[in-house]
Specification:
The complex is a heterodimer of chains A (382) and B (647). By secondary structure, chain A is an alpha+beta fold. Chain A has nine helices and nine strands. In chain A, 49% of the residues lie in helices and 14% in strands. The chains are: A alpha+beta (382), B mainly alpha (647).
Chain lengths: 382, 647
Amino acid sequence: MTCMVQLTVLGLMGTLWAQIGSASKARAAELALQEARSAALSIDWDNILWTLVWLETLGIVLLSFRLIQLVVRYTGYDPFAAWDRDKANMRLWMGVGLGGLALAVWGAIKYAPFALPEAASIHGKYIDSLKDFTLSFTFPAFILVHLLLFYMIWRYYNGKSRAAVYELTNHTLERGVLIAISIPVVVIAGWGIYVWSLPVHGQTPQENQRTLEIEVVAEQFQWRVRYPGADNKLGRYHYKLIGGENVLGLDFTDPKAQDDLLPTAKEIHLPVGALVTIHVRSKDVLHSLYLPHFRSHVYAVPGQKNQVMLVPTVTTKEMRRKLQDPEFDYELACNQLCGGAHYNMRMKVVVESWEEYTQWLSRQKPAYAPPQSLAVNQKLKS
Amino acid sequence: MATHQATAVGTVPHTEVHHEHHHESFWTKYIFSQDHKTIAKQFLLTGFTAGFIGILLSGIFRLQLAFPDVSFPFLETLLGKWAPEGRLDPNFYMALVTMHGTILVFWLLTGGLSGTFANLLIPLQLGARDMASPFINMLSFHFFFWGTVVLFASFFVETGPAGAGWTVYPPLSALPQAMPGSGLGMILWIIALVLFVVGVLMGGLNYITTVLNMRTQGMSPFRMPLAVWSLFTVAVLGLLSFPPAVAAFILLLFDHSLGTSFYLSDIYIAGQALPQQGGNVLLYLHLFWFLGHPEVYIVLLPALGITSELISTHARKPIFGYKVMVYSILGIAFVSFIVWAHHMFVSGMNPLLGSIFTATTLLVAIPSAMKIFNYIFTLWKGRVQLNTPMLFGIGTVSFFISGGLTGFFLGVAPMDIPLHNTYFVVGHFHLVMGVSAVFAMFGGTYHWFPRLWGRMMNERLGYIHFWLTFVGANLVFFPMYYMGFGGVPRRYYAFTEFSFTNKWADLNVFITIAALITIFGQLIFIYNFFHSMFYGRPAPRNPWKATTLEWSAPVKHLHGNWPGKLPVVHRWAYDYSKPGSPVDFIPQYISDEDIARGVRWWEEDFDPSTVIDREEPSGGEKRVSAPEPVITPLPSPHQKPEAPSSS
């Protein structure tokens, strides 16, 4: 009886809810078709049906517990009465635990090819080898510590173990744990600090190495990239100069800014083997320049000049060959929540030889269009 | 109401006036209660309600992540304009993510977890009549509650709830033109958080004061249960770390509404250059994470404290390395204040800081590993009762291992570069502080339910709940590590736009199915919880045969906890399976003389009052602590002044 009442109430609530939910939509539709609509609110039966299905599933789940309980109470039939609580749960721990560990290993093998391919930059290789080392310590530790935990359950569950031993501590063991954990801590921290300070932040151009400074500017929800012109230097900018054609707020009184290039295609081209410094800034909110394949990542902070340095080592073509994926592209993503379309701030990154790069660069248009010539052009057109 | 029982066993004449019978109306008993046990229940119910809504939100956004191209008409029914044509709006997706994080981190795992168990356990396990200030304790809950109301109210404002992530980084959160959620929703978020923090601070002050001043006779610090140690430490952490966050939120509110530029500089948005200059977002990041990282331990430490109780009690064995555990708690708490910038390795702060914070961050591994191994060694040579609380306790340890080890990747600056803000982070923190703390909270609820409601929870439903949630949570969060190594960024509305994220589509469907099953599996708990509250098997006084003081108080709640005297503590909290003892536990209030006297404390109908209220033997420890504080209940507005003859 109570079941019926509960279900009916749930159903009524669902109907009411659906009516309220569809009201705003229905109103909008009414405005659009004002003359055609003479009837009252249209009812979206689909919505009502879905709501009812969900609510009643919920009700059925709850009621089924009650049902099982009533069956146990009135028939006296209890399929689990003979179960030994501790033994059953111990077996579950063994099954679920060992099965879970096996599943973790299987998943790691299955999804290894899905992980990021090997780093396409010099500092990235250092990061990768540190990561591989850490993984070779943490993954076995994950398995072994769990095995130890499962062993304790298997060996000392109530039933197999009849009495506990009053043991307060064991200094040798504690000291052993302390040393065992301190070693990886010291090694990984030391190695990490080395990689962070030299390969990542201490990159200086080698002999005969080309250097390149570019700027990547983030805004909701796209990236823009600026290349230096013939002087190989980026010019000044100020955010208050943004507007109209000058999307990056370049200060054209600075001669270094006048020859800067603004590629229109959503692509960044980088020459392989050059030391590239990417200056990162944001026009509006926090973004972050995430180049997963190069292991480069830095926030784009409004009002702050951030930069990353990297040396691309593998061209796009080579990487396609290596991965046997003709569709492969390096990608630039935003990795700091910046609004609704955060997920869609994609830019393609092309790594190519110096010759291809210079050819591509020569086709890009400069940012600076002298106002007079613009006016002349327009006059000529008209 | 307590007087009658006290005099029945009393060998001591009772002069305390606060045991007087006083009439309680509905309002003073259930709403404006100053009794710490009722406040604990209030925190638990509010926290669980908020938490359940929080995980339901995750169900909605998991649907979107698994099926980005599918239309779900019921979403439009549920969410109206936020899911036109059954497709989730990207801005509302962000709002869901934000609210999920806020609710679970702050409401469930800070307010719910600490609030419930600190209120319940601190006075009861220390042998105090109530908190140091019951009135402030009551206010603490009410601030928390009204914070909850304001937070949920933000779902109903036109521009939707806050959507800038639970960390609400400006300028996104400070500029209403940046996203709809940064309008009124953001203001409500800040108000809710400030109310919440006021509640936390009031609670924290109370917990600290109570632990320092109101321990019963004989309860020296190293006899305190580890749960109290961790709750005390967490209260100190909260007191030191929440105020900077409030400052950060208030400054954010100024930037948002008053045109200041603490965090804003050089912004051109919506076709307009803003006048603000000179601020910097990194200031916000530093202030926020100065709270944010201790916050992780504010969540985790009570969970580990509760787990210590569960594991020791149900393994029938003293906690292994008690002092190491205490020093680990203090060590983690101290280190947690000097690691915050590991959330900012790639924010553009000075790289030198990256090196320093790498070193300090990895230090956390040492006390954490000590704790994990001490839990495992507690099981060693124990007699492990695999009942529901113990299953959840072991579950917490398992999640702490799975989640903690990956901290080695994220805590090291160079390895953090490709993993920062990816699903690796999502998997890491959900396992190490999310699910692990939730499991401790479930375990604590199953364990102390008889203490809270005087009834036992259903064990079998408990097993089903545990196994379903344990398997489900692992299936949801462990694969996220694989995705993290693939560089999949978090807070993405869809993974369809990038080739390096799109190839994880199948795994995302799998995770979503596992998540939905796990979420709906929580209905088992909800049913068990409410059904047991009313129809559960009546609990004996000490159902788990535990040693701590909370099980010596009567099952029926009394204002003042013990009907007669306060218990006197003669031993530490973990005398399980002590050689020479007739049974495998000796409660803290049993002295060696009592054992010699032949007190049979393990019997079902044993009344601890007979020991507690006994005349102190001459030559025994004399009471040195301050006299008992007098608890004056808030007078009921409906209460008529009692005639002098009534007492």
